[in-house]
């Protein structure tokens, strides 16, 4: 969609390709009225989902860490397929983790997931504060317990008031860590009050703007983000022209400091968070 934006001069050792993608449970959208006329697809099975999952799996296979939003944990509308597990297997990721944010019984299991080629040190799941529950975050730590790489995948609310609370919550989650990647669908732009407050209160940075990801058919809003600590070198960042969902994905290549060592232990690759 956009040419890669070169940010820093990479000088560190380990390079990682990261992707953040809201896939709208595998549903394609071409116009706003699709939300109304195709609303039944959000509750009932349809063949389009499986076709799109195959397409998504092929495209994400070239990345090292992939954060996926608007998945399903396995319910009626997805023919009881757990999307995080399915995409991890199809794209050959040894590690996958999910968090179900909103449960509608057997009809829908709204979830988020993170796929990784690196062995994690620790995984935790968080419910983000809101008057209307259903937003969450996945926190995965890599490397050493002394000074880990902390990767956070988050999906924030539509309400600004809720987002302010959620940004503060995320700030507390990452406080004290030197190497942080925070990514996901924040539902707010670069110049928003809530995102500005987060950047002002943390070491996170976003040295780019106007990488519009929504809506996929005519992107006008930059609401999907990848933020990193100053210790992490950003080699490139771009929006990818994958109009499979109602969002476009944002991709970033980063380089880690020399002392942040990640593991791809084949034995530990069988591990999955409970």
Describe the protein's architecture and organization.
The chain is of the alpha+beta class and 274 residues long. Helices cover 18% and strands 30% of the residues. The chain has five helices and twelve strands. The strands form two sheets. A six-stranded mixed beta sheet has the order 3-4-2-1-12-11. Strands 5-6-7-8-10-9 form a six-stranded mixed beta sheet, with helices on one face. Strand 6 and strand 7 form a beta hairpin. The longest helix has 15 residues. The protein starts with 14 loop residues before the first strand and ends in a 19-residue tail after the last strand. The C terminus is likely disordered.
Quick take:
With 274 residues, the chain is of the alpha+beta class. Helix content is 18%, strand content 30%. The protein has helices spanning 34-37, 47-60, 83-90, 160-174, 193-201, and strands at 15-22, 65-72, 95-104, 108-116, 122-127, 136-142, 149-155, 179-185, 204-205, 224-229, 233-239, 250-255.
For the largest beta-sheet, the strand count, sense and barrel status come to:
6 strands, mixed
Rg, please?
18 Å
What is the average of the pLDDT values? 89
Low-confidence stretches: 267-274
How many β-strand stretches? 12
- What strand line-up does the widest sheet have? 3-4-2-1-12-11
Helix content: 10-25%
Strand content: 25-35%
What would you call the structural class? Answer: alpha+beta
- Encode the helix/strand succession as letters: EHHEHEEEEEHEHEEEE
Quick one: overall form? globular
Distance between the termini: 37 Å
Q: Please give the count of helices.
A: 5
């Amino acid at each position: 969609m956009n040419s890669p934006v070169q940010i820093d001069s990479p000088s560190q050792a380990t390079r990682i390709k990261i992707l953040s993608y809201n896939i709208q449970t595998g549903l394609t959208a071409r116009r706003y009225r699709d939300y109304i006329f195709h609303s039944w697809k959000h509750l009932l099975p349809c063949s389009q989902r499986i076709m799109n999952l195959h397409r998504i799996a092929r495209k994400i296979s070239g990345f090292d860490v992939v954060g996926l939003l608007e998945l399903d944990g396995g319910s009626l509308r997805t023919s009881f397929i757990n999307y995080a597990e399915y995409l991890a297997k199809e794209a050959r990721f040894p590690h996958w983790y999910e968090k179900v944010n909103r449960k509608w019984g057997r009809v829908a299991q709204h979830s988020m997931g993170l796929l990784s080629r690196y062995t994690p040190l620790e995984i935790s799941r968080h419910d983000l504060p809101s008057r209307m529950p259903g937003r969450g975050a996945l926190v995965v730590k890599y490397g050493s317990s002394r000074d880990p790489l902390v990767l956070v995948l988050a999906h924030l609310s539509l309400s600004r008031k809720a987002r302010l609370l959620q940004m503060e919550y995320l700030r507390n989650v990452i406080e004290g860590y030197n190497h942080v990647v925070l990514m996901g669908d924040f539902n707010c732009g670069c110049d928003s009050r809530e995102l500005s407050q987060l950047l002002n209160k943390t070491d996170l940075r976003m040295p780019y703007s106007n990488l519009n990801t929504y809506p996929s058919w005519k992107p006008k809003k930059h609401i999907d983000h990848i933020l990193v600590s100053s210790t992490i070198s950003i080699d490139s960042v771009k929006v990818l022209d994958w109009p499979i969902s109602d969002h476009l994905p944002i991709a970033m290549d980063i380089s880690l400091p020399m002392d942040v060592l990640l593991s791809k232990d084949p034995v530990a690759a069988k591990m999955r968070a409970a």
